[in-house]
Write a structure and sequence with these properties.
By secondary structure, the chain is an all-alpha fold. It has helices at about 1-40, 45-65. The protein is elongated, with a radius of gyration of 20 Å.
Length: about 70
């Protein structure tokens, strides 16, 4: 009886972890799709978007480090 309850608990835990990870995976896929679309644009636009993304990430990490 305990084994059945324990097995059900593990299955529920795994399902909850998968459910929690799905939005993150969807965000990563969407981000890569945007990058692929940008790679077809003019080089000037690509470098501008990439540099803005890098600057945004640097600002976020510097603010997080200041706390």
């Amino acid at each position: 009886m305990r084994a059945i309850i324990y097995k059900k608990l593990i299955i529920q835990t795994v399902e909850a972890e998968i459910t929690a990870m799905m939005p993150l995976q969807r965000a990563c896929v969407a981000e890569s799709q945007v990058r692929n679309k940008l790679s077809n644009g003019p080089l000037r636009a690509q470098s501008n978007v990439i540099s803005q993304s890098i600057l945004r990430r640097c600002r976020q990490t510097s603010f997080a480090g200041d706390m």
